[in-house]
Amino acid sequence: MPLTGIAIFKLLPKTNCGDCGVPTCLAFAMSLAAGKAALSACPHVSEESKVQLQEASAPPIRVVTIGAGERTLKVGGETVMFRHEKRFENPPGLALLIKDTMEEAEVNARLEKFKQLQYERVGLTLRPELIAVKAESGNAGKFEALVNKVKQNSDGGIILMSDNPDVLAAGVKVCADKKPLLYAASQDNLDSVASLAKKNSCPLAVKASSLEEAADLTPRLTAAGINDIVIDSGSRTVRQAFQDQVIIRNAALSKKFRPLGFPTIVFPGEMTDDPMKEAVIAAMFVAKYAGIIVLSDFQGESLFPLLVERLNIYTDPQRPLATTQGIYEIGGPDENSPVLITTNFSLTYFIVSGEIESSKVPSYLLIMDTEGLSVMTAWAAGKFVADAIAPFVKKSGIEAKIKHRKLIIPGYVAVESGGLEEELAGWEVLIGPREAAHIPAYLKTWKSQGER
Predict the structure, then answer these.
(1) pLDDT, tens digit, for every residue of 129-172?
(2) Which of these, 314, 355, 359, lies nearest to 437 by C-alpha position?
(3) How is the chain split into domains, by residue range?
(4) Centroid of chain to Cα 194
(5) Please, which contacts does 31-40 make with residues 24 or more away whose CB atoms are closer than 8 Å?
(6) How far is 327 from 21, CA to CA, in rounded Å?
(7) For residue 233, which of 59, 244, 359, 375 is within the disulfide window of CB 3.0 to 4.6 Å?
(8) ∠ CA 203-172-241, rounded to 5°
(9) What is the pTM for the complete model shown?
């Protein structure tokens, strides 16, 4: 049961020193209870209290780290069943399957797909994280060679797949430094695979034949000192696998049932032979509630929607994606180029900047910090109004870059034009289009006149 703010307060030093960034220990305790602060922010908490607080604040679903370096993937750590309750924490990892029975050309093609299939969206790079290497041949030497090739030709995390401990050991030998996920420990090989995982400090997946068996296996692993566990319930039908995901999540969150308090792994490719149906199944597991999704292959037309779905679901609804405030130069503008302004909601920025770029009219785009709100929402909240816009324009430095004094504002805030001209002495405020799609035509009019 999570500690309340008052219970946390009792374990704090109660000095009200403010070193944590908030004025009182009670306020800090309330922030901790709400998940809005980290315990490490308090430099004076005792070691005894720190242990108690860390244990009490541990998420009901353990965070498991796969890989090392810049491409480290964290899964699990979830605290709610539904995104609207708070937020989802760690997006599921998407994995590409490569088997040691594949021809070299196919392996090379898949490794190339893993590198190339990445996309820029709202300022973020969307891409898969993992490569699942499966020892289908059962040959340890062949598996080791493939794992080494994957390691040398990819920066992604690795999942090693075999039910033979000796084969898994051959794979671990060449990539232990990348902290691969070992898949999988079962009733038949639990002790051997657990020993291998513990020796190499690798996370370990459990493959069970049912949820009951999974709940029996995980305590045996934790008793052996292995805590970084991923659960495969063993279901290979869509209905049962979906049901298992919901039960695991609910048992961990609502019932505080520790044996199922771990992230999960699913294999949509083992539930259908149809690539598009596999993508639909994977989309279901992005939302409900997989930690790792292993796909039989990657295709751009199915991978991109999965990446966007994942982005949308795992974006914190309380913290909109925002672009950094400042002056953005598009197309190499000069002193005669138009100046537009908009808010720092990322989607607004990328739509507006894209339309400016497509107009082929070099322009300055002023991005104002409105706490990630869109134009109309920011205006309604009083964050994108004349007395807020004017100080930003004056301090932005744009006056040093242009010889005219004309500012184009979004048509949706045309009502602010008069007040803005009063606040910006010497400036002429022009009302731009209401819709971003009309920006190219508007800017071409500016260009044709030399200066609007």
Answers:
(1) 999 999 999 999 999 999 999 999 999 999 999 999 999 999 99
(2) 355
(3) 5-57, 64-314, 326-448
(4) 30
(5) 32/5, 32/8, 32/57, 33/2, 33/3, 33/4, 33/5, 33/8, 34/5, 35/79, 35/86
(6) 30
(7) 244
(8) 45
(9) 0.77
DSSP string covering 114-146, please? HHH--EEETTEEE---EEEEE--S--HHHHHHH
Q: Look at residue 287 and give its three-state secondary structure.
A: helix
Position 430 scores a pLDDT of 94
Closest to 310 in 3D by CA, of 318, 319, 302, 298 = 302
CA angle 71, 225, 229 (to 5 degrees): 45
Neighbours of 448 (CB within 10 A): 9
Among residues 387, 381, 451, 382, the alpha carbon closest in space to that of 418 is found at: 387
Class of domain 64-314: alpha beta
If one counts every other C-beta atom within 10 angstroms of the C-beta of residue 352, the result is 24
CA distance 47 to 63: 22
DSSP 180: P
Tell me what the pLDDT averaged over the chain comes to.
92
Query: CA–CA separation, 280 vs 268, rounded Å?
Result: 9
Tokens 């910006």: give the residue.
Answer: 424
8: exposed, middle or buried (Cβ count in 10 Å: 0-12, 13-18, 19+): buried
Domain 5-57 matching CATH 1.10.15.40: the answer reads yes
Q: Is 326-448 assigned to CATH 3.40.50.11600? A: yes
pLDDT beneath 70: ranges in the chain: 1-2, 34-36, 55-57, 122-123, 318-319, 447-452
- Is residue 420 within 8 Å of residue 386, measured between CB atoms? yes
